[in-house]
Amino acid sequence: MTDAWSAAAAVPDPEVPCVTVADLGILRWVRMEDGVAVAGVTPTYSGCPATLAIEMAIEVALRDAGFEARIERVISPAWTTDWITDAGREKLRAYGIAPPEGAVGKMALFGETEVTCPRCGSRDTIRISEFGSTACKAQYQCRACSEPFDYFKCI
Known about the structure:
Layout lengths: L1 H8 L11 H4 L2 E7 L2 E6 L9 H14 L3 E6 L12 H10 L1 E2 L26 E5 L7 E6 L5 E5 L3
Parallel strand pairs: 2-3, 4-7
Antiparallel strand pairs: 1-2, 5-6, 6-7
């Protein structure tokens, strides 16, 4: 069982390859059912274009590890950025993406969040676009070091 979890958990996110599906918390569980490794996967949001690619990559990883495999899409409860692990948040920061700040709340919907620059650590930042390299990220710029960066929005 741990071998199946390890194989599935090591799959990188195709849009943000510095983190794995386990780091993001979208791999919910892996369990054996009648000799088949079944992985529960929760999409980050219903319109995420990477969902099918992620599910296929997890299935391939399980098969490559010697398991018959099946993926179950788990839509309830809905994924939240609160599920990103501490290790995942640090990997995002090291990659140059500011991880979500604080817990999910209504004010996050209105951009009422102070964002820390992942490069220099300054909180003197400004949102320059609601959308960054993907729909789940916003584009910010640091006023201290002048560098632009993506911020992984609280969802």
